[in-house]
Amino acid sequence: MKTRPAKNRQSIPAPLFLGLDSSTQGLEATVIDAACRIVAESAVQFDADLPAFKTQGGVHRHPDGLTVTSPPLMWVAALDLLLARMKKAKMPLDRIAAISGSGQQHGSVYLRPGTDRVLKNLAPARSLAQQLRDVFSVNASPIWMDSSTTRQCQERDAALGGPQAVAELTGSRSYERFTGNQIAKIVREHPEFYRATERIALVSSFMASLLIGDYAPIEPGDGAGMNLMDIRSRRWSKKALDCTAPGLAAKLGAIVPSHSIIGILNPYYVARYGFSPQCRVTAFSGDNPNSLAALGLAQSGEVAISLGTSDTVFGALSEPRPSATEGHIFGNPINPKGYMALVCYMNGSLTRESVRDSFAGRSWKRFEDALSATRPGNGGKIGFFFKEPEITPPVRKPGIFRFGADNRPTDAFRPEENIRAVVEGQFLSMRLHGRNIGLVPKKILATGGASVNRSILRVMADVFGVPVYIGSQANSASLGSAYRTLHGWHCVQARRFLPFTKVIKPAECFEKTFDPDKTNHRLYTALLVRYAKLERWVTDK
Ligand code: XUL
Predict the structure, then answer these.
(1) For residue 517, what is the DSSP state?
(2) Residue 424 belongs to a domain with what CATH number?
């Protein structure tokens, strides 16, 4: 950690800004200065650093194979551990002017009556975990990996007029992991737990509550991941609440704009870790909205493609175009009137890797050579590679489907044609399904592990017909939170809302890597029509 020496006694030390990310596997911190430079990072891994909670990958998988939960007390213990590490590393916590954060989306925390009083009266001599161990009315918090609420999804869909109606209202059709369906399950299976709950928080708003020493509000980026918020008015939808649980509005609290200052840091952290008593807290959001903030995607046409274990396509939208068949619309955390869309794929890097292993001798070099040795459009050959069950489009049974230029199923692809087919197929799918919810890029920022494979990015540029930029963004959700709290701080100084991109100038820039080839793009546009038809055939099977 670099600290700048004071020029003279009167000089005020430059303020710093802290972004936290309570993810599935750990809690991370990124500290930036007012010029958006990263000055410090720190992390806690749940499995390794808090073994008493006995998690694997931060979660408990239940024997039914569908239920996945995490102990909320572990998230509490992680906060003390992380801050203790930062203090020990002599990070100047007293210079942190504002904090925001991120939480894995959809996970929920159930708090007993009076938890707000416990939070207000935290004693600095005792740990958070010691003081909060009895506040949970549900000790196992459902998280985003849970898929045990199919029944509740069907019931709520029926009550609200079907999947497209739910998507129009809340931004997504009913998904098992979305919080409203999880709450409905608790009400059905454990009504006594629900009755013993005064406040239901998301992981993000729960972590914010720990900091402000009170119940924290939810904001529209993460609130949209609940199937409970009206995506256009950014308020709780009475209809959606009524078909979920009795008296739910009172347990959810308010929804506030993402840049809102929601409180001053609780004195616990001032006494225990040396934070400034003036340190402010900005509303926390979900990990995907914060990753969008890290890339500064505020306007329609600004799209990022993250090529990771699972691939995601996300970007800013000025008008929501919710779809029952693909993707999600969330509030845009850096544009209070805007939206963001997100399309998630299960078959990302692991699927590309399995094709590489089968047809390129486990070598990325040979994989790239094979792409260069084949022509764009693959001579009309199209492939669908579902190594895992897919969410976009929904495909329950894994499998590989290959088609010749005559649209007939075939197995006769040469090794290099399989390689071109998996890459072209994935980007054609992203173009198709992204467009269905309004994601039409003007430029693409490519992130994630596979973005280092240049020839994959060339195909991306040609399929979408737009330039592709690359940059590496480690810890993007905590960095996005740090940017958001710096933005909130600027708005407070100016006493009005300032556009995010006017005040946040990321220190690390993306580099333009490829311009599209117009001829190839025309070819892919024609291929997309056939791809969409064949995809319908594959998914109807
Ligand atoms: C998004 C989703 C995941 C989690 C991961 O809808 O379920 O990306 O947010 O933390």
Answers:
(1) P
(2) 3.30.420.40
pLDDT digits (tens, 9 = 90+) for 124-144: 999 999 999 999 999 999 999
Q: Would the CA dihedral through 438, 444, 447, 448 be positive or negative?
A: positive
State pLDDT tens for residues 404-455. Answer: 999 999 998 999 999 999 999 999 999 999 999 999 999 999 988 777 788 9
The pLDDT value recorded for residue 474 is 57
The structure's pTM equals: 0.91
The boundaries of the domain holding residue 464 are: 349-470+513-540
Query: 22 forms bridges with which residues in the sheet?
Result: 27, 103
Ligand 1 center to 185 CA (angstroms): 20
Residue of minimum CA distance from atom 1 in ligand 1: 105
Inside any domain, residue 440: yes
- Which of 75, 288, 342 most suits a substitution to test ligand 1, by most atoms within 8 Å of the C-beta? 288
DSSP letters of 322-371? --SSS-EEEE-TT-TT-EEEEEEESSSHHHHHHHHHHHSTT-HHHHHHHH
Kindly state whether residue 342 falls inside one of the protein's structural domains. no
**pLDDT tens readout for residues 247-294:** 999 999 999 999 999 999 999 999 999 999 999 999 999 999 999 999
Report the domain count for the chain: 2
Under a CB-based contact definition with an 8 Å cutoff, are residues 39 and 490 in contact?
Answer: no
Tell whether 337 is covered by a domain: no
Ligand 1, atom nearest to 312 Cα = 8
Task: State the alpha helices, DSSP H only, in 71-114.
Answer: 72-88
Characterize the bridge pairing of strands 16-22 and 199-202. Answer: unpaired
Pocket of ligand 1, beta carbon within 6 A: 23-24, 104-106, 144, 177, 225, 286-288, 328
Task: Select from 21, 102, 106 the residue to mutate for testing ligand 1; criterion: most ligand atoms less than 8 Å from CB.
Answer: 106
Pocket test for ligand 1, best of 177, 285, 346 (most atoms within 8 A of CB): 177
Are 138 and 275 part of one and the same domain?
A: yes
pLDDT at 5 over 50: no
Tell me the CA–centroid distance for residue 373 and ligand 1, in Å: 37
Atom of ligand 1 nearest to the CA of 24: 10
